[in-house]
Amino acid sequence: MKTNYSEQGLIDFENDISKCFEDKMIRAPIHLTRSNEKQLIEIFKEVKEDDWCCLSWRSHYHSLLKGMPKEKVKEDIINCRSIEMCNKKYRIFSSAIVGGNIPIATGMAMDIKRRNQTNMAWCFIGDMTSMTGGFRENLEYCKNWELPIRFVIENNGVSVKTNTYDVWNTDKLFYEPIIKNYEKVYRVDDYIWYYFYKQERWQHAGTDVRIQF
After folding, report:
1. Is 14 exposed, middle or buried (0-12, 13-18, 19+ CB in 10 A)?
2. What are the φ/ψ torsions at residue 33 (nearest 5 degrees)?
3. Beta bridge partners of 53
4. Band of the pLDDT at 184, cuts 50, 70, 90?
5. Percent of the chain having pLDDT more than 70?
6. Does domain 7-196 have CATH number 3.40.50.970?
7. 192 bridge partner residues
């Protein structure tokens, strides 16, 4: 998709949301992000307007890049939908449940194929989610049925504050190289893309100043 957002434009949006949260304008958990602006802008150049995006609980940037107006995204966040951003008009679905977006994306891709449509589903997940059984099952199913879907794994190396690699006792996950390039979007095949980023700011479910559960 063609977007007018720069890296700084995305950062400015999250800074604004952070201030709203700290000013207690948002009375629900939020998930802010930082340092993956470049990678997402690159990825969304490949996303078409009629594609579906199935997102997780950290979805502000994705919603903006999918074409949802900035004012609408902010309104939804203030109305306590930060971690469940859904909008049929802009073909956005998100779930705060770990892996909850994966089978939805698979179903969307199957429906697209059955209707002989030319669009596709994009499913964004985290690194720990990529190691769950649900992801591996859906990945295998989508490959075997040749469904129009792409999984984008957003790897910040942790699940909340638990190190993903320590949990799995490995230096790399099954789709990764050992050397991590934080500037690159890796394209493994037609089904898996991924990138590394470091969550440089923001507490889990809050800001650097205030958290809420």
Report:
1. buried
2. -135, 165
3. 92, 122
4. very high
5. 99
6. yes
7. 151
